[in-house]
Amino acid sequence: MPAWIADGICAQTDPEEFFPDKGGSTTAAKQVCFACTVRRDCLNYALANNEPAGVWGGLSHRERQRLTARTATPLRGAA
After folding, report:
1. Domain count of the chain?
2. What was the pLDDT predicted at 52?
3. For residue 68, what are the domain limits?
4. At residue 71, does pLDDT exceed 70?
5. DSSP string, 5-65
6. Which of 16, 48, 71, 76 has minimal CB crowding within 10 Å?
7. How far is residue 49's CA from residue 52's CA, in Å, rounded to a whole number?
C-alpha cells in the first residue's frame, strides 16, 4: 500500500462515498478529494493502475478514462 494513502482525507471518510452505486452521486467524494493534500498522488496511482471503479484524486472512473484518452491522442499534424 502506498505511504500517501494514510495521509489522505478519505482515510477518515466512509469508503462508500468513493464507490457509489451505479448512477449514484460522486459529489461528496469529490469535495473531500479537492481538499486533500495527496490528491495528485491518488489520481496518479489510479491512472497508473487503471483503477476500474470509484473516485480517485477527484475523478470518477469515466472521467479518468476521458483524461487518459485525451492525453493518449496524438496531435494532428505531428510527425
Report:
1. 1
2. 94
3. 3-72
4. yes
5. GGGSGGGGS-GGGGSPPTT---HHHHHHHHT-TTHHHHHHHHHHTT--SS-BTTB-HHHHH
6. 76
7. 9
